[in-house]
Amino acid sequence: MTNTILVILASCIASASVVWFFVRLYRGQCRLEANFQERFATAKIRLVDKVAIFIAQELDGYSHFRGRGYLVLTDDELYFERVLGNKLLPIPVASIKEVGETRRSGGQGTVRPMLKVDFTDADGNADAIAWRVNDLPAWKEEITSAIGRK
After folding, report:
1. I need a surface site. Which of 35, 83, 110, 128 has the fewest CB within 10 A?
2. What would the pLDDT profile of 57-110 be if each residue is shown by its tens digit?
3. pTM, whole model, 2 decimals?
């Protein structure tokens, strides 16, 4: 009888944890969409990927929290906001030095090629960041075009 109660209790806790995670994910997605709508209401968006996956930022070292979020390119900015973890990465287009693809960045690797953006941060340090995006060729082309206009 005691083992049955423990199994039921463990099942309830596990189920509650799963429900909590998905509620948190849903709320994060709603917050992200609201921020996106407000921040880019008047901007000319060149490209957007609402399911881009942050892989790594080189100046962060080997400790990374991967996560899905919104990647947005305007004429002036490449902007990423992650659903969970509150990571915001605004990168002025003028600070982007190179765009390409890679399979490894910041100690993180993937099977599929990733978008890699080399840029200079606000303190003048060279940095690079990698995302997995849905349309890698389009992102490379649009960012290259935006860099060329600056």
Report:
1. 35
2. 887 665 566 788 889 999 999 999 887 667 788 999 999 999 999 876 656 666
3. 0.75
* Alpha helices, H only, 78-121: none
Taking the C-alpha atoms of residue 37 and residue 84, their distance in angstroms, rounded to an integer, is 18
Contacts 24+ apart (CB under 8 A), 85-90: 87/54, 89/54, 89/57, 89/129
Q: Which residues contact 103 (CB under 8 A, 6 or more apart)?
A: 109, 110, 111, 112, 113, 114
Residue 32 corresponds to which amino acid? L
Q: Please write down the long-range contacts of 23-26, taking CB distance under 8 Å and 24 or more positions apart.
A: 24/84, 25/83, 25/84
Place of tokens 């992650």: 82
